[in-house]
Design goal:
This protein is α/β, with parallel strands linked by helices. It is built from 13 helices and 16 strands. The structure holds nicotinamide-adenine-dinucleotide. Nicotinamide-adenine-dinucleotide binds next to helix 1, helix 5, strand 5 and strand 10.
């Protein structure tokens, strides 16, 4: 099969590429301009790009003619190319919208324009960020599956400054619950809004042109190969880098904020499985491990693995606009295509750190990234 992967040499893209190559002798076209922020000045993936059945087009997806050429004879498109930093999207807006929105527009226009050569299916790497905070119920309704779901907006800066990080409703605490695909979108960053725009654009254009469309809303993906030098995304990579330098992690808020960490090999398997979905299956799926892990728990696991226990501190610092909790209800992907993630956090984290230890230690740029965002917020 001829397969196009935009962003095919990125973190998830390389894992997907390797799995596809192991699965069968597919012909793969990878369009990836190897952005320096992610890959550094001298990226080399010759173990992939030198393979006879792999064609790497090192170009920007927005450059005229690039995607028209890449789409020739393609049956399956995985659309992964994107700018991915939530905080950075708040001030590098044009750059984010050029790749994420205009790039998607160009991809879709090329697909729509060639009625005789359209792919069978387009799979989009969407994001849990489109939900914003996700869903909450009143704490005394925790065990009621029919409890009314609430969708709080961004937290107030003055509440956070006073150490009030959790949500309340009429003086009663709200409890986060796993986010379902049927929960409403509520993007809280320019990045999230661009991912939601991608979903709408792909859904409408694919429906109009008879191309099967599937969006996977990915939670926090981690694993070997994640950029260790990009300070704008990838909390596990950023923390690992800091600990390896002998630094301490400044755990924001009260450390109880949580995320859903899903291993990159599981994510790549989900993409491959989703490409075979029946035409009448749903089009949107959460992809996560389905478990909330607090940032304090994550740091404790990393410190245990790196034998640096006890050095990191909860600082109470916070970033306005950060969400408090988000994890996925993964029932739909399990029930629709029998997909369940296989790699538990402790195992995946161990493999990730073992890989990171083989890599050069990168300069920690995470404080610089925080300062850029703080300057914007005043
Ligand atoms: N990693 C996560 O936790 C996560 C979570 C939710 C969604 N996603 C989505 O998954 C996709 C892949 O993310 P990733 O973690 O592998 O990120 P990544 O940065 O490692 O990969 C993205 C790739 O796209 C390439 N790229 C960026 N702009 C491009 C352009 N204009 N033209 C050509 N190539 C370009 C980059 O060089 C990079 O290799 C993205 O769409 C992202 O929004 C990732």
């Amino acid at each position: 099969m001829r397969i196009l992967i935009t962003g095919g040499l990125g973190f998830i893209g390389r894992t997907l590429t390797r799995q596809l190559l192991a699965e069968s002798s597919h012909e793969l076209v990878l369009v990836d301009n190897l952005t320096e922020q992610v890959h550094g000045p001298n990226p080399g993936y010759s173990e992939i790009t030198n393979l006879a059945n792999v064609r790497h087009i090192r170009e920007d997806i927005c450059e005229p003619g690039v995607l028209a050429d890449a789409l020739q004879g393609i049956e399956v498109v995985y659309h992964l190319a994107a700018e991915t930093g939530t905080g950075q999207s708040m001030y590098e807006i044009e750059r984010y919208y050029r790749t994420n929105v205009q790039g998607t527009a160009i991809l879709l226009e090329e697909i729509v324009k060639s009625p005789d050569g359209r792919p069978r299916v387009l799979l989009l790497a969407s994001s849990r960020s489109i939900y914003g905070e996700g869903a909450y119920v009143e704490a005394n309704q925790a065990s009621n599956p029919l409890a009314q779901r609430h969708y709080p907006c961004a937290r107030d800066k003055s509440d956070m400054a006073a150490g009030r990080f959790d949500f309340e409703r009429a003086g009663q605490p709200l409890l986060a619950v796993a986010t379902k695909e049927s929960d409403p979108a509520n993007p809280l960053s320019l990045y999230a809004a661009s991912k939601l725009a991608q979903e709408h654009m792909c859904q409408i254009a694919c429906q109009a042109s008879g191309v099967r469309y599937v969006a996977l809303r990915l939670q926090n993906v981690y694993g070997p190969g994640q950029s260790l030098r990009n300070p704008y995304t990838g909390i596990m990579s950023i923390f690992t880098n800091i600990l390896r330098q002998g630094g301490t992690i400044d755990i924001f808020e009260d450390g109880k904020e949580s995320r859903d960490f899903v291993y990159v090999e599981d994510v790549a398997r989900a993409f491959r499985a989703a490409a075979t979905l029946a035409p009448d299956a749903p089009s949107v799926f959460n992809v996560g491990y389905g478990v909330a892990t607090s940032v304090s728990q994550l740091v404790a696991l990393l410190e245990e693995k790196l034998k640096t226990s006890g050095k990191s501190k909860i600082s109470g610092r916070f970033r306005p606009g950060d969400i408090r909790h988000n994890w996925a209800d993964i029932t739909r992907m399990r029930d629709t295509f029998g997909f369940v993630p296989e790699v538990p956090l402790r195992q995946g984290l161990s493999e990730t750190v073992d890989w990171a230890l083989t890599q050069p230690i990168e300069e920690d740029r995470s404080e610089k990234a925080s300062r850029e965002l703080a300057a914007l917020q005043g």
